[in-house]
Every structure is written in C-alpha cells, then in structure tokens.
Amino acid sequence: MPPRKIIIDTDPGQDDAVAILLALASPEELEVLGITAVAGNVPLPLTQRNARMVCELANRRDIPVFAGCDTPLERTLVTAEHVHGKTGLDGPDLPDPTMPLQDQHAVDFIIDTLRAADPGTVTLCPLGPLTNIATAFTRAPDIVSRVQEIVLMGGAYFEVGNITPTAEFNIYVDPQAADIVFKSGAQLTVMPLDVTHQALVTTPRNDAFRALGTPVGIAVAQMTDFFERFDKEKYGSEGAPLHDPCVTAYLIRPDLFKGRHVNVEIETTSPLTLGMTVADWWGVTNRAPNATFMGSLDADGYFALLTERLARL
Ligand code: BDR
Ligand code: CA
Q1: CA pair distance 40, 62, nearest whole angstrom
Q2: CA of 223 to the centre of ligand 1 (A)
Q3: Domains of the chain: which residue ranges?
Q4: Cα 247 to averaged position of ligand 2 atoms, centre (Å)
Q5: How far is the centre of ligand 1, averaged over its atoms, from the C-alpha of 118 (Å)?
Q6: CATH fold of 4-310
Q7: Sign of the CA dihedral 18, 127, 202, 80?
Q8: pLDDT of 38 over the 80 cut
C-alpha cells in the first residue's frame, strides 16, 4: 500500500513535536504533504517557528510549513505557556530555523491540496485548536467530502477537562471551530484525554528516548523533562501524558487503540462548560454518531513504536 497522505495542523508544543517526528520517521505509512501552524499553545509566530525547528531537527527542510490563523474564530486566544514554556518548545536548546516559511496561508494550502488530490486520499491531523480546519471548511465547503479522515487530538469524556474543569485545551481555545468540524460530516477519529492520559512518559520510557543517543532522541527526552514537571505535579502521576503522538501513532498502528463510534457535540455557549466535548459514550440519546472516540491505548506498544521510529531519524 502506498503511504497515506497527511497534513499535520499543529501548535508545537513539545508533544506536537514528537507527533511530527513520528510521522517523519514513518515514510512507509505516512507521506507528510505539509505542516500547517495555528495559534494555540503559544502565539502563531512561535508555533510556525517551532514547526520549522522540528523539521530541521529531523533533517527534513523539504517539508513545507505554512502559517495559518493567529486567533480563534470568535474568542480571544488562550495559550499554555504554563505547560510548554515561553517558546512552546522549552527544554532542548535547538537552533533557530533557517528553512523558509511558505508564503501561502495555511488555510489556502489545505483547500488547494484537498481540491488537487483525488477525493478521499488526504487525511487531516489536527494537533491543536481547530481554527485552520474550520476556516478552510467554511471558506470551501466542497473540500469536506474530499477529506479521507480527520484524526485529531482533542476533547475528553471520562477525564473531563485539563484547562477548565470540563474542557480540554484544544477544544476550549476555539470551541466554535471545533463545533464546525464535529458537525462537518467528515469522518472523524478523536484522541481525547481519556486515551492520552494513558500515554504517560515514565522515567524508563524517557530514558529509552535519551538512550537512543541521537540528536532527536536526546531532544525528545529534554522536551519531556521540561513539560512533565507541570503534569506530574498536577496529577501526581509517574509521568506526563504524551498527547499528540496518539494521532500519528494511530495512523501507523490503529490496533493500539480502542474506542466507540458515538455522537460528540461541542458546548459553545455555557460559561461554565465552554468547550466541553459531550460524548454520548453510553448511547443514551438518539443523536447520530459522528466520531470514533477513543477510550483505551496499549501504552507499552505506543512507546515501543515511538522509540523504534525515533531511532530512525
Ligand atoms: C493538548 O493541548 C496542548 O497543550 C497539547 O499540545 C495537546 O495538543 C492537550 O490538551
Ligand atoms: Ca498540540
């Protein structure tokens, strides 16, 4: 089978960086057509810069990186420097990128790529707020039916929220965009906190990254060392969740994940529960299923895959 064509839409973010590295390390399964940056963990000038730094870390200056939307559709941008540090990619000491940022806007790249490709051959991989994807769908509704699948990190059901008591960060930052994407009719696969909180970077797992002894292995270990201080303290867990690589890992090894095809709606107005992903996990409504919402992960298999693939870079 030829590799699956993907666009990674991202707000790096240390865990976004690992998701990108995993994709770039897996050319048999994944062909990265481009990386589109969005404002999220940190503002857009930093996320597009970080995306280029990650490509250079992987020695892939040929990957086109595009800057997209710098603010959510209707709300003021909320960022997460308290988790990811001032740059969004605190931890390793990576050089400033020298590869260029593409002139084209990320949203135009998404639209043009979907229109140019055969229908059903391009998968979108959002790892941050859904602003770029929703903007593309609103501006060019014809592309929705051309998407093969959207595999995204966002939301939560059993784990409820991480940025508010009821909302996960990516959905909370731009709930209106999430609402557009979840109602779009595109085939959706969701990696919520329910799954990503099983992907804990314990000390032995991070030591395995470091032990690769390569610039990539060492940088990934340093990224994790940085961002895990926050989550370990918050959750009292033995390591931080490595959220976003669940998306690219799923495209390589779907057998590592289990979930249910259910209805998922986004809360867009309530001040108390804004950005909540209301997943009908137990099938108590007659609302039509619109997403495969993952619930469990083979964490050992996930980290074995990550370590094996990162070793190739
Ligand atoms: C998500 O929010 C960001 O901080 C991470 O990169 C991940 O995409 C987890 O809630
Ligand atoms: Ca992210």
Answers
A1: 24
A2: 14
A3: 4-310
A4: 11
A5: 31
A6: Inosine-uridine Nucleoside N-ribohydrolase; Chain A (3.90.245)
A7: positive
A8: yes
The pTM of this model reads 0.97
Quote the CA–CA distance of 22 and 30 in Å, as a whole number. Answer: 10
DSSP code at position 262 = E
Q: Establish whether 261 is a catalytic residue.
A: no
For residues 199 and 193, what is the distance between their CA atoms, to the nearest angstrom?
Answer: 9
Average pLDDT, the chain: 96
254 — pLDDT class (breaks 50, 70, 90): very high
Instruction: Choose the residue to mutate in 9, 11, 242 for probing ligand 1, maximizing ligand atoms within 8 Å of C-beta.
Output: 11
Pocket around ligand 1 at a 6 A CB cut-off: 13, 15-16, 41, 80, 83, 127-128, 153, 162, 168-170, 243-244
Q: What are phi and psi of 152, to 5 degrees?
A: -130, 155
What confidence tens digit (pLDDT) does each residue in 14-23 have?
A: 999 999 999 9
Q: Look at ligand 1, atom 4, and give the residue with the nearest C-alpha.
A: 41
> Which residue out of 226, 243, 247, 277 has the highest number of ligand 1 atoms within 8 Å of its CB and is therefore the one to mutate?
243
Spatial CA neighbour of 57 closest among 85, 13, 17, 26: 17
The two structure tokens encoding residue 203: 């000390």
pLDDT at residue number 202: 92
pLDDT computed for residue 36 by the predictor: 98
Looking at residue 2, what is its pLDDT? Answer: 92
Q: Tell which atom from ligand 1 comes closest to the C-alpha of 243.
A: 7
Does 270 score more than 90 pLDDT? yes
Q: pLDDT band at residue 308, thresholds of 50, 70 and 90? A: very high
What is residue 13's three-state secondary structure? coil
